[in-house]
Amino acid sequence: MRSITVRLMLMVLWLGSVVTPAGAASAPCGGDFGTWLDGVKKEAAAQGISQRTIQSALSPVTYDPTIIARDHAQGVFHQSFEQFSGRMVPPRLARGARLLQQYGPIFSRIQQQYGVPGAIIVAIWGLETDFGANSGRFPTIRSLATLAYDCRRPDKFRTELLEALRIVDRGDMAPTDMRGAWAGEIGQTQFLPSSYLKYAVDFDGNGRRDLIHSVPDVLASTANYLKGYGWQRGQPWGEGTANFQVLLQWNASQVYTKTVAYFAQQLADGQ
After folding, report:
1. Mean pLDDT by 10 residues, the chain (271 residues)
2. Nearest residue to 251 (alpha-carbon basis) of 88, 137, 39, 65
3. pTM of the full predicted structure?
4. Catalytic residue among 43, 128, 163, 185
5. Cα-based distances in Å from 134 to 10, 58, 98, 225
6. What is d(CA 254, CA 154) in angstroms, rounded to the nearest whole number?
7. Quick check: is 128 catalytic?
């Protein structure tokens, strides 16, 4: 199962917050792509991003119409909780339990530092990318540049593009290594670049925040995200709780969030 289901839910949230004028999706709004990209380079330089990063990350970038086709083809997610959880949780439950045990010492450290139980993190990890198996292969900077150039949400994705350049600039990864979902999410639990910058942590101690290859970094960063939105240590996470509201900050879909909570409870109960 690829992460497209979760990406679809996120697209629904974005679409719900944007009114697109009739006909606006028919053509990009940025004029000539090369000229537009030069403007991004100037803005990046004005924000303190190094010329080395700007040239290495942006000079090879071209417009990708397949990204826009995917974006414009998004529909409304209609599955019920019973349908979605029934499809997503049972095939992942046994492996999730094994990973919870395998990384037990890391989860103990994470819970001590961030207050988030391993079961919650494993549930998110499994639903987002099948525990890292399907993180996506799209070049992140090309995807973000294409979406920023398009009409629908140019400001949102221009910001994310600049944040992606900052990730490169601070040495966390090279532009060629930055690959993920088609809408710009990176890593095994799918962080947009702005969240990557804010919440990614170096939990394996190698000096880099790597949410693609480093499992300790992935797990701890996910916990740090939830802590940043107010996760309450030692409290329940079912529907109606404060921690359930925190999970809604990860993904505002009630169906998805109820599935995370259910999956995590199954893991915590050892079922």
Report:
1. 44 40 44 93 98 96 94 80 96 98 98 98 98 96 97 92 97 93 96 97 96 97 98 97 97 95 97 62
2. 88
3. 0.87
4. 128
5. 17, 25, 18, 21
6. 27
7. yes
